[in-house]
Description:
The protein is α+β, with helices and mostly antiparallel strands. The chain folds into 2 domains: 7-199, no CATH class; 204-283, no CATH class. 45% of the residues lie in helices and 13% in strands. The protein has helices at residues 16-24, 68-81, 124-133, 139-146, 156-167, 184-192, 205-218, 228-250, 254-283; strands at residues 7-12, 30-34, 40-44, 87-92, 96-102, 109-114, 198-200. Strands 6-5-4-1-3-2-7 form a 7-stranded antiparallel β-sheet, sandwiched between helices. The protein starts with 6 loop residues before the first strand and ends with a helix.
Amino acid sequence: MTATSVGALLLCRADPETVRPLARLLQESMLLTPAGDGWSVLVPEGKPWRRDGDGGGHAAGHAGAEPVDRVLGGWATALAVGSAWPVLALWWDGERSGFTLAAGFRRPVGYTWLADGTPAGEDEAMRTFAARLGLDPVLDVQALEALTHEDPETDADARLLGLLAVLARTGVSLPPGLTPGEPAGRLRAAAGAHREAELIEWPGWRDAVRVQLDAVEGGGLGPWLLGPRARAVAVAQVAAGLPLTLWGARRRSGGWITAGLVLLAQGALGLAYNRFRREAEVARG
C-alpha cells in the first residue's frame, strides 16, 4: 500500500438487478458487477475524496471533497436505509484501511487498521458485524477477532483480505483485480473488464422515479408498497430524510446528504406508487 493507493468498494448483499435502481440514486457514476452468490459490488468511477491537510491520508481530488471513509460510510448508509439488504463499504487511503457495515436504520458499525496493520477499532464491532450478517457466532467470530490482534507481519491489505475470506463463506467472491490496496483507477479497469459489468449513472430525478417504478412493477414489489401501512412507512422515510439531508449539509458531508436524499426519494417513490395505483384503478372504473 502506498500514499497513492486510494480506493473503495461497496459490497451489497443482493443481485445486480436488485441493486441497480437504488444505486442510481447515489448520483455517482459506478460500475456494477456480480460478486459471488447473492452479492454484488459497486466500484466508484470518480474519486470524491482528497487530502484535507489535517494529517490524514486521503487521496487528492476536487475541492470540497471528503475523506474516503466518510464518503463510503454515507453511500453505504444511503443504500442500506432504502433497501432490505446490508451494504459493506471497504476503503483504504494509504495510511488507513477499514470497513463500514450499514443495515437498515441501525447505526453503522465499522473497524479501522493503520497501514501497517495495527488495529485501531473497537473489538466489539466485530461481534456486531458478525451478528448483522448472520455469520457463525463461534468460528466466524473467532476469525474476525483474530483481525483485531496485534500482528507485525500482517498489514492493512492483509486484514481486509482476511475479512473477505470470512465473507467468502456467505458467498462473496470478488472479480479478479478487485483487491484491497489497489488504487481506484486499477479497480475501475478490473471491474470494467468483467463481462457482466454495467455502468450505473444518475438519470435525473424524473427518469429515476420512472426507473424505480418500473423496477417495483417488474420485480413484484408493488403489493408491498400499497396500503395504509406502506404509505405510513413512506411518510416516515420522507420525515427522516429531510433532517438527515439538512444535517449533512450543515456538516458539509456529501455522503450523508446523499443518504438523506435517498430516504426522501424512497419515501417519494412509495407515495407516488400509491397514487399511481389509485389513479389506475379509478381509470379502470
